[in-house]
Write a structure and sequence with these properties.
Blueprint: H1 3-7, E1 11-16, H2 20-30, E2 35-41, H3 44-54, E3 58-61, H4 70-77, E4 84-88, H5 93-102, E5 106-109, H6 114-125, E6 130-131, H7 136-146, H8 151-155, H9 158-167, H10 173-180, H11 184-198, H12 203-212
Length: 218
């Protein structure tokens, strides 16, 4: 662990999984990566209650749960949903796409090493989408299925789309300006226009919007 990370406060997470042994294993291992588990749940109703109680930095959410699954949790939480990483045994297309469209910021498979899951949690906590490489085909399918049909995306100018793609990768305005060869003030203007057209108020919401539709790729 590098010194800068050691100085940061631990990330606070709620783990939602209907298998107690999975929750216990993740809780024990994540502590080794400076990630504190501040709540647990095994079903949709309890998950919503735990998030509302604990206000975690990141929600670690299984996809298939008693009471409706990950999409039901995210729908019930609405704007109160924290940055969310889905961690599931399922790599089925419908599960991946439904979960992303419901608002998850990332999706990883349970076959991943705990260190990789911890890294995914940190990426999500920093406002950057994170997906297992095995799911690339499904994410491209979301892109192909939605890009042409989404009127909001079509309403963005070509430059605004460029800015949104880079923004969705978590880069600061200065990096975006350097990458695109424009000034920081110009980037700030583009971001204000993007937020207005997407009808969101923060860059995190814009990032989530882009990731759900695969527009952070390319």
């Amino acid at each position: 662990m590098d010194r800068a990370r050691a100085m940061e406060p631990p990330l606070r997470v709620v783990i939602v999984d209907d298998h107690e042994v999975v929750r216990a294993g993740l809780r024990a291992e994540l502590q080794k990566h400076r990630i504190d588990v501040v709540g647990e749940a095994g079903d949709v109703t309890t998950a919503v209650a735990e998030v509302n109680r604990a206000h975690p930095d990141v929600l670690v959410l299984d996809v298939r749960l008693p009471g409706g699954g990950a999409a039901a949790v995210l729908t019930a939480l609405g704007d109160r949903a924290p940055p969310t990483l889905a961690v599931s045994a399922s790599d089925e297309r419908d599960d991946v796409i439904l979960t992303i469209r419901a608002g998850a910021d990332g999706y990883m498979l349970k076959t991943a090493a705990v260190a990789a899951i911890a890294n995914g949690i940190r990426e999500i906590g920093a406002g950057r989408p994170f997906f297992s490489a095995e799911l690339a085909g499904h994410l491209l399918e979301v892109d192909r299925g939605d890009a042409v049909q989404d009127p909001t995306w079509e309403a963005l100018t070509a430059r605004e789309r460029e800015v949104l793609r880079v923004l969705a990768r978590g880069h600061p305005y200065k990096r975006i300006a350097d990458d695109l060869g424009v000034g920081v003030k110009t980037v700030e203007t583009h971001v204000r226009n993007i937020l207005r057209k997407l009808q969101v108020t923060t860059r995190h919401e814009a990032t989530r919007w882009a990731a759900e539709r695969g527009f952070d790729q390319g």
